[in-house]
Amino acid sequence: MPIYEYQCLDCGHRFSKFWRSLARAQSEPPPPCPRCGSEQVQRVISQVAVLDDLGGLTPSEQAAVNRQAEKEAKILPKSKIDEFRAKKTKGRGG
Ligand SMILES: [Zn+2]
């Protein structure tokens, strides 16, 4: 039986839920927060749980970390940028 961990985005409360089957856990919506009743809950993956234990990140900080990770994934190496620029300048004045 899978146990999924969730975090409330409103109050930051973390809780886990037993699912009878993996299919249910994946197809049904996450349970509301048992503390404040909010339905704004997010499934916690183990990596985030570790971060949270270390630094005590709030949900908004976690969101910022996720955004930062996305941004970094989009940064191109300089060689790629030069390649793009070369193409652009070639295209002009033809
Ligand atoms: Zn809550």
Task: Outline the structure in words.
The protein has 94 residues and is an alpha+beta fold. It has one domain: Single Sheet (Rubrerythrin, domain 2), CATH 2.20.28. The chain contains 4 helices and 3 strands. A 3-stranded antiparallel sheet has the order 2-1-3. A hairpin with a 5-residue loop joins strand 1 (3-8) and strand 2. The longest helix has 16 residues, at 59-74. The chain binds zinc ion (ZN). Zinc ion binds next to loops. The site of zinc ion has 8 residues, from loops.
Supply the CATH architecture. Answer: Single Sheet
Compute the average pLDDT.
Answer: 79
Summed up, the domain count is 1
Order of helices and strands: EEHEHHH
Per the principal axes of the C-alpha atoms, what is the gross shape?
elongated
What name does the CATH topology carry?
Rubrerythrin, domain 2
Beta-strand proportion: 15-25%
Residue stretches low in confidence (pLDDT < 50, at least 5 long) are 48-52
As laid out across the biggest beta sheet, the strand order is: 2-1-3
Radius of gyration, taken over Cα atoms and rounded to an integer in Å: 21 Å
Bound molecules: zinc ion
- Please give the CATH class: Mainly Beta
- Total E-strand runs: 3
Class by alpha and beta content: alpha+beta
